[in-house]
Specification:
By secondary structure, the protein is mostly helical. It contains 11 helices and 3 strands, in the order H-E-H-H-E-H-H-H-E-H-H-H-H-H. The longest helix is centred in the middle third of the chain and has 34 residues. The chain is globular.
């Protein structure tokens, strides 16, 4: 009984194992991820400001894009600063409340991004398949409702997962084999039943993966069908160009998640999991503003106009 009570004693803090234990890599990785974080913050804030100040970009597509930039900015800020601390401290201790807070906001923004990418696919479907009805279907009210739904799904899932995690008893083995507080590494430290938690991971995981993916796939099936019915090569190229940035963002985001979660257990390892986690928690927020600025004509034109205005001022 004493041993059981000792094992189930309340944990007040955890130790994050970090990305690597090799001392020689700590400083180079710190400088690398610090640079990535600075570019991510500047890129996403710049995108939000550019969309807000450019009347040309006051359309549903860019309304969703500014929301994506906000989510990426928050997602990166939830994860990267704590990761940077791990590179410059000998033992990266995170308190129990701070760990649960990081888990909650990570889940909010990662789940919200899944649904936002689906909403953006639906926007492109309406724009290409029903161009004459686009303004009436994608009204300001409709866009606001979609964004509200995106954050509602993120909050509901995050509250559910975090609420169940608060009921888990953790053993004295308090080293989280990850660079942030994620669901599965935390559940591995449990010395109580995690049946409800695992059931939630399965149910919400299936919902949050398949619902957005099916929406995206069905949208693009109709989009491709409509593009193929366009007779002119120029018209096809123009229609496809409006979707190319979104396709790139979806491929990078879901590709990294698939690499993380769909590997066979015989092949996957925690180190590989950490690397793929870096892609969708740190690299994706970096790439999204670059993808939408480099591959988007409207954004490039708006950026050039703003820079000219600044120069003349």
């Amino acid at each position: 009984m004493e041993m059981a009570a000792e094992n189930r004693s309340s944990v007040t803090e955890f130790i994050l194992a970090g990305l690597t234990e090799h001392p020689g890599l700590q400083l180079p990785l710190f400088l690398l991820f610090l640079g990535i974080y600075v570019v991510t913050v500047v890129g996403n804030i710049g995108m939000i400001i550019l969309i807000g100040l450019s009347p040309r970009l006051h359309t549903p597509m860019y309304y969703f894009l500014s929301s994506l930039s906000f989510i990426d900015l928050c997602q990166s800020t939830v994860i990267t600063p704590r990761m940077l601390v791990n590179f410059v401290t000998e033992k990266n201790i995170i308190s129990y409340p701070e760990c649960m807070t990081q888990l909650f906001f990570f889940l909010v923004f990662i789940i919200a991004e899944c649904y936002l990418l689906a909403a953006m696919a639906y926007d492109r479907y309406v724009a290409i398949c029903s161009p004459l009805l686009y303004n009436s279907i994608m009204s300001h009210q409709a866009c606001s409702s979609l964004i509200l739904g995106v954050y509602t799904m993120g909050l509901v899932c995050a509250f559910s997962h975090t609420g169940c995690m608060l009921r888990v008893h953790f053993c004295k083995l308090d080293v989280i084999n990850h660079y942030f507080c994620d669901l599965l590494p935390l559940l591995k430290l449990s010395c109580s039943s995690t049946y409800v938690n695992e059931l939630l991971v399965l149910c919400f995981g299936a919902l949050n993966i398949f619902a957005p993916i099916l929406t995206i796939l069905s949208s693009y099936i109709f989009i491709i069908s409509s593009i193929l019915h366009i007779r002119s090569t120029e018209g096809r190229s123009k229609a496809f160009s409006t979707c190319s940035s979104h396709i790139s963002a979806v491929a990078i985001f879901y590709g990294s998640e698939a690499f993380m979660y769909l590997q066979p257990s015989s092949v996957s390892s925690m180190d590989q999991g950490k690397v793929s986690s870096v892609f969708y928690t740190i690299i994706v927020p970096l790439l999204n503003p670059l993808i939408y600025s480099l591959r988007n004509k409207d954004v490039n034109v708006a950026l050039k106009k703003m820079l000219k205005r600044r120069i003349f001022l």
